[in-house]
């Protein structure tokens, strides 16, 4: 079986462009099939890493990530004042023998991503939704505290 690096692996930088196997002919395919290494269970990459877009509006920090094929019940999102951690699992539904694959590029299994936020947010007011395979997390910024003048009382 040829295990070509997935688009997910390419996006997350877990492979270099030199690691890719571009196959253009049947002979190239046969040669590549002989030389491809199977992924090791002892690999240091036990979890995939989500790719994210993080941006701000005047009132919120927005995190977007492509998570197509993931049941919302399989997502775990932890939010603190300055960090968000997204964990989950993409289940492989079919049981296909490895020797029956020509290419296996889709990412299956556990993934996680922690994002340090550029400003403090209000975790209790955060909201997450999925639409068309895109996870959107909206994190309201903490309102800036205005300077308050404090009057000193005399306790005589």
Automatic annotation (TrEMBL):
Residue stretches making up the SHSP domain: 43-155
UniProt protein name: SHSP domain-containing protein
PANTHER family named in the record: HEAT-SHOCK PROTEIN 20 FAMILY MEMBER (PTHR11527)
Family matches, as Pfam families: HSP20
Top-level lineage group: Bacteria
Family of this protein: Belongs to the small heat shock protein (HSP20) family.
Taxon lineage: Bacteria, Candidatus Portnoyibacteriota
Gene3D superfamilies assigned to the protein according to its UniProt record, in alphabetical order: 2.60.40.790
Organism whose genome encodes this protein: Candidatus Portnoybacteria bacterium CG10_big_fil_rev_8_21_14_0_10_36_7
InterPro entries: A-crystallin/Hsp20_dom, HSP20-like_chaperone, Small_HSP
């Amino acid at each position: 079986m040829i295990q070509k690096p997935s688009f997910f692996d390419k996006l997350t930088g877990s492979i270099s462009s030199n690691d890719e196997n571009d196959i253009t002919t049947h002979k190239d395919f046969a040669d590549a099939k002989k030389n491809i290494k199977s992924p090791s269970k002892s690999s240091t990459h036990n979890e995939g890493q989500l790719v994210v877009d993080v941006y701000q509006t005047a009132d919120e920090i927005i995190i977007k990530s492509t998570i197509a094929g993931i049941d919302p019940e399989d997502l775990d999102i932890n939010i603190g004042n300055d960090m968000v951690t997204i964990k989950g699992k993409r289940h492989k539904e079919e049981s296909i023998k490895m020797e029956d694959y020509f290419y296996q590029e889709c990412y299956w299994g556990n993934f996680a991503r922690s994002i340090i936020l550029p400003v403090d947010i209000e975790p209790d007011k955060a909201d997450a939704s999925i639409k068309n395979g895109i996870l959107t997390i909206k994190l309201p910024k903490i309102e800036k505290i205005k300077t308050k003048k404090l009057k000193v009382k005399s306790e005589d």
